[in-house]
Design a protein that fits this description.
This protein is α+β, with helices and mostly antiparallel strands. The chain contains 2 helices and 6 strands. The chain has one domain.
Length: about 130
């Protein structure tokens, strides 16, 4: 089963990112396994990151992303801002990172754009 376009799968493979494409009822997503976190910022060094793909992806943008395990900031032992709500997907309770995307460019952006947004959000969380 494939939920990502070929160019997105190719990008993940070329970058060496371990991933799985998954459907949970009507929802489709991709889980990035062992996604490295900014050193010293969180109570984990890596996490699984879930990106839910909307109907019409890649012309329609993914909105938020989700983490397992739930990530806490080292400095405060608290959750990052707007990252304290659960979402159930594939039988697991994921940590929702509410980071909205208003600058998606249909026909240009893809999974690489979302990964850059995730990396930026994780870096800026502290």
């Amino acid at each position: 089963m494939s939920v990502l376009p070929l160019k997105c799968r190719r990008y993940l493979t070329e970058r060496g990112i371990t991933y799985v494409e998954i459907e949970d009822g009507p929802q489709k997503g991709v889980i990035l396994h062992n996604f490295q976190l900014p050193p010293g910022q969180f109570d984990a060094v890596a996490a699984s990151i879930l990106i839910l793909l909307p109907a019409g992806y890649p012309d329609n943008p993914p909105d938020m992303f989700y983490a397992l395990p739930w990530l806490r900031l080292v400095t405060s032992n608290g959750y990052p801002k707007a990252a304290d709500c659960p979402i159930m997907f594939s039988g697991q309770s994921w940590q929702r990172w509410s980071r909205h995307n208003n600058a998606w460019r249909p026909g240009v952006d893809g999974i690489w754009t979302m990964i850059k947004r995730i990396e930026t959000a994780l870096q800026e969380a502290a």
